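Bench log. Compound arrived from synthesis this morning; before running ITC I wanted a structural hypothesis for how 6-O-phosphono-beta-D-fructofuranose sits in the protein. Inputs:
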Amino acid sequence: MANEIKTIGVLTSGGDAPGMNAAIRAVVRQALAKGVSVKGIKKGYQGLLNEEIVDLKRSSVSDIIQRGGTILGTARCMEFKTDEGQQKGADICREYGIEGLVVIGGDGSYRGAQALSRKGINTIGIPGTIDLDINCTDYTIGFDTAVNTAMQAIDKVRDTSSSHERCSIIEVMGRNAGYLALWCGVANGAEDILLPEKYDYNEQSIINNIISNRKKGKTHHIIINAEGIGHSTSMARRIEAATGIETRATILGYMQRGGSPTCKDRFYASIMGAYATDILCQGKTNRVVGYRNGEFQDFDIEEALAMKKDIPEYQYEVSRALSM
Ligand code: ADP
Ligand code: F6P
């Protein structure tokens, strides 16, 4: 099909995620290979409204595939939630000759993409978030790096926890989603895994579990607590008071969002970036790229946002069985 689009834009929006740079690189290189030029919009929708727009050449994306964060920067922009903001954004795109836009981010960012699409700028979303909480896709860019970073940190906490015969509560990110916690819980062999989707707030049963494990001779007790439950420090105080076992809380925080992306994140980001560019250049709009049932696909944004995804029941049951 002949290219009708001559120039596209790319931006990153919402929380940064390792692999976003690989996605930017793929968008730029795939577009240039088709004879389409690319403009990078800095700091998400805020940068669009501030006209922070730069030309991206082949060399602009050299030496970034291995870097965490996003070379374009990212931001949250309240003004873009208003109709005036969205109209201004679409007008700026037209002014700069940006006929189509690839938006790398999460659900909120897709809402912005949808708004631009309604204002006549073609848009395609790519799932970029460490939280894995985008319903239309089994994979989100950044999850693999974040979960491996967290897993390695938890192994380290476990060493010191065992030496001191302490109980450790380790809080992982994920906003309201428990995927990071579930994966770390299983991969780190945690004794308790608290997921926002499942936790019944029965702290007494955790306390009983700690006491019974200690009686069996376990020297450590690792509790993975999801950010969506939070309050790890006060939980630690209550558990220490109830069990008499020294208990410490560690909140892993932003270290989970940084760092060089894993091979998996670089690979998925590269394929998704190229795929988004392909469909944008075919004239598609208001779509999100996803990886589902073993293949890369695209979905209508409204449909994608309406899809439901939960913690897989079997995985949850296994996580419970293995922690006994
Ligand atoms: P994420 O994309 O990771 O879900 P946010 O929810 O913070 O992150 O959304 C990122 C940005 O997308 C927001 O700061 C805002 O600029 C834009 N956005 C979010 N929701 C909407 C909306 N309903 N309409 C237009 N733009 C939105
Ligand atoms: O969406 C990624 C994420 O790191 C969540 O896990 C976390 O809840 C949130 O972003 C933190 O956002 P901020 O960077 O605004 O503090």
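What the model suggests: The chain is about 40% helix and 20% strand. The mean pLDDT is 96.
ITC booked for Thursday regardless.
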